[in-house]
Amino acid sequence: MHVVTSLDKGLPRESTEQGFYVHRTSWRKVRFLGFIPFWLKVLLLLKKIKPDIVHGQDIIGMGVPSFLAKRLLKRPYVVWGRGTDVYLPGLFVRPLSKLVLRLVLRDANTVIALTEDMKREMQKIWNRDIFVIPNGIDLERFDDLPRDEMRVKLQAKVDERLIIFVGRFRPDKGVTYLIEAMDIVRQKDQSARLMLVGEGPEEDSLRQLVGQLNLGSCINFVGQIPNERIPQYMAAADVFVLPSLYEGFPNVVLEAMASGLPIVVSKVGGLPEIVEDGQNGFLVESKNPEQIADKILLLLRDDELTRRISRNNKEKAKRYSWGSVVARLEEVYQNHL
């Protein structure tokens, strides 16, 4: 097994990790043009590796060199849509990006989507058979984390009710509407505090909004944290919120479920396939601070509802174990490649 990926700062270009050969290649972050030398470098690596199967882990970034490997090196490939490559194909001028998507989807030996909604969107681009396989998570990372101990580590007060967001601070994540929802929540529940975990291009404007609404005492910008610490923050929280404007199949929602958190998410993309309204969380309209606030307050006030949703989420999260996901992926490889 060879993994071909981008080169991050401080990492070697070649390494062997847990029995896998990892090849990292640099790419210039220049709109459109930066991808071309990256694709060519990946193609040269594939020529050197001579794989039996190429797996493109998104339609454009790794789908294009997979497409080229089939055309030039005669290697079969599977491509797995990830979300932004389907819902936000604006990496190039849109007509060009749609053409690239069509070519990659048309020539793939097998195509996979994360959700039924993503499958429908991909079939609008190129109508063909598409398998649906969700993301997976390591459930053991979220087992037996004592809530009180985690709250002490995060210096949370005993009577505080913690709401958590984890993700990039980008316009499509809708953090603005969550902050506006907190303005409503705090007027009715002074114990509520919001932890914003992450970073991104919107951070300065989000901080300005917090200042304008005078919410500095109840909203904390935690910054980016290592992935291995995410379970600790989840364990300490009371409610998880993801107010996105569009989504594919975000792993962070699965992580919140595995932590037993009640969740409030926007009714967009694949999220309604993960969250059953009233059973393991609540669905709200995007860009709607009032609905977000209403569901947060409902969960903070109704302990029995929160406990029921928590139990349901831990049970539902078992469907997304990596063991289950990998078994389905292996079946696709064996039967269709």
Helix/strand structural class: alpha/beta
Question: Mean pLDDT, as a whole number?
Answer: 91
Distance between the termini: 16 Å
Number of domains: 2
Task: Detail the poorly predicted runs.
Answer: none
- The portion of residues assigned to helices is 40-55%
Order of helices and strands: EEEHEHEHHEHEHEHEHEHEHEHEHHH
What is the CATH architecture assignment of the largest domain? 3-Layer(aba) Sandwich
Question: How is the main sheet built?
Answer: 6 strands, parallel
Q: Biggest sheet: strands side by side, in what order?
A: 10-9-8-11-12-13
> Per CATH, what is the topology of the largest domain?
Rossmann fold
Per DSSP, the total helix count is: 14
Spell out the CATH superfamily of the largest domain. Answer: Glycogen Phosphorylase B
Q: Bin the strand percentage.
A: 15-25%
Give me the Rg, rounded. Answer: 21 Å
Provide the CATH top-level class of the largest domain.
Alpha Beta
Number of strands: 13
> What general outline do the C-alpha atoms trace?
elongated
Characterize the structure shown:
This protein is an alpha/beta fold and 337 residues long. It folds into 2 domains: 2-136 and 322-336, Rossmann fold (3-Layer(aba) Sandwich); 139-319, Glycogen Phosphorylase B (Rossmann fold). Helix content is 44%, strand content 17%. The chain is built from 14 helices and 13 strands. The strands form 3 sheets. It has a 6-stranded parallel sheet, sandwiched between helices. Helix 5 (116-125) links the parallel strand 6 (110-113) and strand 7 (131-132). 39% of the residues are buried. The model has no long low-confidence stretch (mean pLDDT 91).
